[in-house]
Amino acid sequence: KLAGCTLFITGASRGIGKAIALKAAKDGANIVIAAKTAETHPTLPGTIYTAAAEIEAAGGKALPCIVNVREEQQIIDAVEKAVKTFGGIDILVNNASAISLTGTLETETKKVNLMMEVNVRGTYLTSKTCLPYLKKSRNPHILNLSPPMNMNPVWFKNHCAYTISKYGMSMCVLGMAEEFRGEVAVNALWPKTAIHTAAMDMLGGSGIEKQCRKTDIIADAAYCILTKPKSFTGNFIVDEDLLREEGVKDFDAYAIVPGHPLMPDFFLDVEGDKKLSGSQQEGPSGAKASSPVAETFRVIQGTMNEEYVRTIQGVYQFELSGDDGGTWYIDLKTKSGSAGFGKPPVTADVVMSMSSTDFVKMFTGKLNPTMAFMSGKLKIKGNMSLAIKLEKMLTKLNSKL
């Protein structure tokens, strides 16, 4: 269906962008790989040239272009080169994106600029530059990898700048779909669950892939959208919902670990969890002596060892709300470690705020810490890398808790 079509894909050297490119390449499409990575990155896989080799091996034609979407001239040069090489542009996929999951006071100005310039401005300028050529195509499409605009404050309070930048991409869909109705289809696509990419590995740490789906699900959903007529426009599409409508029934095929619980992605509300019940008896120091929280800390204290202290070197303070609330701590920096009620013996490196119910769920393996953070159930201040280290320790504790 996409044979001979030219796709201009930003951020196509790896991850979701490359997966969409490879899917189209199997039809014999022309792919313009508009991405920054021209030389091997020390931690991230792939360059525009390795992606080009994979695309051509899959049956497509590839044009690798060095494009930082923050630089308008680089976008213009790549679009002109694409038109000169392939005769036009039929599809634009705005996939390039920057992320920083930090609160307003913790987000450096350069990070704010990066997210706004890549996500909003880059999407807008790339669309603007491609539109004169898209309008000449028989079935032109713009597809932004951006979410439905969910005005639930929970999606703003923990990472306001990131949310604004992603919703900016979605507002481009809202506006351009109307502006170019009948001429160019403009839609948004977003995953229902976390997708396993290098970015997700950095955000979630080791083991996060078990809760993710492969990039194939996004590629298949994108293919469905891009092969529809241009009258299909102005839609905010969730990958799984679309594929179900298209008749797909086996979603285990997309899972990294079939059957494993999956992490919902940002901006999609999930049903709230019911509260756990527990004893309300007061113990020494005002703590609930036989509460689920106190029992959890008792087990944590019993599992402390010098290896944890040596490898983690962090002090965690928990501000818990609800029935078994209060301040609790885990010290994995001092001597052989300690845990309990009250403030830690030394200044905390990380302060985590959440409900006591969700805390127990997190420490017993019923709530993934990354998911808790993404959904707003967990708020983190301080050293994020140490927060990720604690998650690794939790996997060892779960069986004992």
UniProtKB/TrEMBL annotation:
InterPro entries, sorted: HSDL2 (IPR051935), NAD(P)-bd_dom_sf (IPR036291), SCP2_sterol-bd_dom (IPR003033), SCP2_sterol-bd_dom_sf (IPR036527), SDR_fam (IPR002347)
Location in the cell: Mitochondrion; Peroxisome
Entry GO MF terms: oxidoreductase activity
Keyword Disulfide bond (UniProt): no
UniProt keyword terms in alphabetical order: Mitochondrion, NADP, Oxidoreductase, Peroxisome
UniProt KW Iron keyword: no
Gene Ontology cellular component list: mitochondrion; peroxisome
Regions annotated as coiled coil: none
Pfam families reported in the protein's UniProt record: adh_short, SCP2
Domain SCP2: 305-394
Homology family: Belongs to the short-chain dehydrogenases/reductases (SDR) family.
This protein's name: Hydroxysteroid dehydrogenase-like protein 2
Phylogenetic classification of the source organism: Eukaryota, Metazoa, Chordata, Craniata, Vertebrata
